[in-house]
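Lab notebook, page 48
Experiment: co-folding of the full assembly
Goal: obtain a model of how the components sit together before planning crosslinking
Operator: M.T.
Materials (sequences as entered):
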Amino acid sequence: MSQTITEAPAYTSLAGRFCQSDEPQWLQDLRERAQALFAQKGLPDVQDEEWRFTSLRDFAKYEFIQAEPMTPTPAQLQGVPASFGGRRAVIVNGRLVSPLSNLPDATDGVEVLTLEQALTRAGDDVRQHLGQLLPVENLPFAACNLALFPQAIVVRVAAQARITQPLELVFWTVPNAAEPIVSHPRVFVLAEESSSISLIEVHAGTGEIPYFTNPVFEFLLKREARVVHYRVQCDTAKAYHIAASQAIVHANAAYEFFAVNFGARLSRADVRVRLLEPAAEATLYGLYRIDGDQISDLHSVIDHAAPHCPSWEVVKGILEGRSHGVFNGRIIVRPGAQKTDAKQTNKNLLLSRDAVVNANPQLEIYADDVKCTHGATVGHLDDQALFYLRSRGIQEDEARGLLTYAFANDVLRRIDVVSLREWLELSILEVEHLTFDRGLLEVK
Amino acid sequence: MAMLEIRNLHVTVEGKEILRGLDLSIEKGQVHAIMGPNGSGKSTLAQVIAGRDLYEVTEGEILFEGKNLLELEPEERACEGIFLAFQYPVEIPGVSNTYFLRAALNAIRKYRGLEELDAMEFLTLIREKMQLLEMNDELLQRSVNEGFSGGEKKRNEIFQMAVLEPKLCILDETDSGLDIDALRIVANGVNALRSPERSMLVVTHYQRLLDYIVPDVVHVLANGKIVKTGSKDLALELEQKGYSWLEEEVLAQ
Amino acid sequence: MTSDTREVEQLAQQEYKYGFVSPIEAETVPKGLDEDIIRMISERKKEPDWLLEWRLKAYRHWLTMKEPRWANVHYPPIDYQDIYYYAAPKSLKDRPKSLDEVDPELLRTYEKLGIPLREQEILAGVAVDAVFDSVSVATTFKEKLKELGIIFCAFSEAVQEHPELVRKYLGSVVPYTDNFFAALNSAVFSDGSFCYVPKGVRCPMELSTYFRINAAKTGQFERTLIIADEGAYVSYLEGCTAPMRDENQLHAAVVELVALDNATIKYSTVQNWYPGDKEGRGGIYNFVTKRGKCLGKNSKISWTQVETGSAITWKYPSCVLIGDNSVGEFYSVAFTNHYQQADTGTKMIHIGKNTRSTIVSKGISAGRSQNSYRGAVRILKGAENARNFSQCDSLLIGDKCGAHTFPYVEVQNPTATMEHEASTSKINEDQLFYCQQRGISKEDAVSMIVNGFCKEVFRELPMEFAVEAQKLLSISLEGSVG
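Observation: model returned without errors.
Model output:
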């Protein structure tokens, strides 16, 4: 338990700061502070309550070097998921590659901008919020991202714009054969008043060489904005993925988030939502399926800072092999956040003898007129259900697959983008070989 | 002076006006029925008389035996003799029915300057009243209304009424969810409590209950006001014709 | 109820009923802590060398430890050199042989607390060990229990008379290395209760210890050890009170339970240490380590606690389920008001096959208090078919208090089933109105609803304690309803 990482070489390679003389001063200041913070705190160890169940010992063996801009060959792009039917930005090793992308036009109501462009389009919001919506004090990797990200992408959805096609951000990593690389993607999503958009964020890569992806997303939802955020992490089996995101939700706005995880050797996500004004809404769905030596760690914080806000969270895990799943879900209800209605559920399916799950739901409540519940379960496939299916002539393997599918489907069926849902069903659940009628499983 | 006197009552809920100038007068010993379509404000009236604070009285007054009810807390109204048989009786986990009822009875007795009953006296009293409602002993040991069927809950309300001996009984949709046998038991219980000293206000959507609890006066509530008052025959008329003709009549005025 | 209420009202006017100080001259060791003090305590108790050695090892280990800071409680640093680690009524210097030799002032104190120590006056069926500051005053029904082979006596007496048992089990459940406060207790513990129930014996009466802190600036560090041998059964009760003082006093106890094959231990606590005043001045810091080991097959340990007192409560009665088919239970009511802080819960460690555990926790926060449930359920690899069910409900009274739930769950066995549910809400307005419509005042209605909310826990308590607990809760609720 008390292993500390002091001689970690990763520490030095992540300790720098991105310097470019034409960068605005406010950003240089932020970077400097973040760098100092990371230098002071270093890598977290299991003594750190936030990292109690996820050890970085393996991670710390590597010296990750900052990825350089590159143009991938077609062979290096094998495996990039096909379009889900919307506009798309392809980001390779942390940098936008325009020739591979299909960016929206100005007439579409949504823009994918560089920092320079964004400063001219929505200067005040960018200056006030980029790098500042997510406090990095207790998030060393987010601090590291802030100090080091080479390029920020700003997604701006115009006021009143209702974007019907999803916007896809595909983060593709092509590892370097000589040294393992790290990329620090940074995205700021600005949803103006009464706008609406679905955003698909996919992380994936190629090859057998370890790499490290350290993305940070910030969302600002102005009044009555609606953002559905799909986050799919299917990095390679050797990859390390440590992500953080923050959504700030204003009055009557709604942030809906799907975190689907099935890649990476080690995957950690810190997801934070702050319901800042009355009647803001948050919905979080999580689904992970891991096997082998995979570690999946989801830390979520839903922060009710205003009255009359509902939040709803469902996180499901399926564990096989020697995998280790961690869920840490905090719900905070601040003083004065009356009439909060928060519900959180965490369910885990343990399918192997060697898998381990840690579930830590937390309620911190400082207002009285609230309704908050959480539930957590860990279990196996229901023997009775299994027997029932088999007694109807279904093969055991198929029956298991079916029940596992039913378990995961509780999250997947809520994904409105059909092509994405089908792709996930195939990738995570390998359901194509199942012969049953999916309609039978539309439960609840 | 009437036992209950309501004058020009206006009530709003979350800014929406539900009762709009209601007048009602109930003499001692009388049974009044209030009928009306869904959403006409019947249940609101019942809850306002009992003092539910969800409802805001913006105008008018309610006098009970000459006292201004609106100045009293719900428990003071109960102690004065007002009893509301709830449409949806509330469950209170962990608090036994007997304990609850004894606490209520003693609070009311204390208010009236009577000796509180000890456990034995109380048991004797409730055994007698239980027969009236054909209540099962076992229900008394359970938590208040917890795990009761719909019929058991309604019977329990009338049983409480029998024990607390109020002056004014308000029955809010007491017949809803009751089969014919349960309805008969409940009605028998209510009828046994009719007396020249006790008034009743029966709130119902259907005429069915009034076959068993025959009212002296029937009012029709629509749009937050009493729009018609008559004898028990009015209930039958409503049963045949429905409410729409009345609404048209009101609109025509 | 209304007659109860009157009683409640009277009691409430006295606020904390047990806040008096008894005029009893105390003999203390000098303030502060070092090896000499430990030697002095040990010597005063005429302890064997092995025990002194054990204390010193614990002390040396304690010096290397840091006070835990992970709990959701806040208090100024404790000056461990500003505490008396031993205080005993002078009159008890030579252990009295019978109650007739006990200082009448001491007996009066216990009478005032509602715990008469003369056997003929006692509720039949409860044997009491009364601990006053650092020492045991008297143990009732000792002889009667002895006939059955049950040992129930002061801890210090057990050290003299049953050293083999003490030596075998002391620290076997809570080693001195366990945590900061357990290490401190191991170094300086003064007295407490010891109980051994032999094979196949069902203890015919409730055993109970009543703890009283009286002396000022004194910490209480008692140690309780209960062993239920194969097939034995014992139900044990613990109560505690302290005078009202402006300063904070430290109470750091350790309780160890051992259940062998087919044995059952039921341990109930009504904790009513002085909680401090309305402004949060004074009160006991209650930092307690309680743990039971279900060593044997089919053994069972059940904790029930009602926590209404103390300025700060830091306490996690736990079960280590080693024997196959063993059962652990934790039933808790934690009530906080004014500026009280409670961080309490349990740990259930499933090691053996078919082990089962149940957790029912009811937290009620009022005033400006903070109330946290913190629990851990760990199902280890070998715990085939282990089952856990946890239910944690919190009730909030007023908008200045906090209610928090921090369960930690770890499952390493795929045949295990673990379910945890938690909810937080305020008192249901519909319930309140229903009670009021039946003539019950708002304050009584709240008390009734809260008691109902806690019923699942109260019904685990022995009858006398359940009544006591309900009254306590009603008193504590007074003034918290706006």
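Interpretation: The mean pLDDT of chain B is 90.
Next step: discuss with group before ordering constructs.
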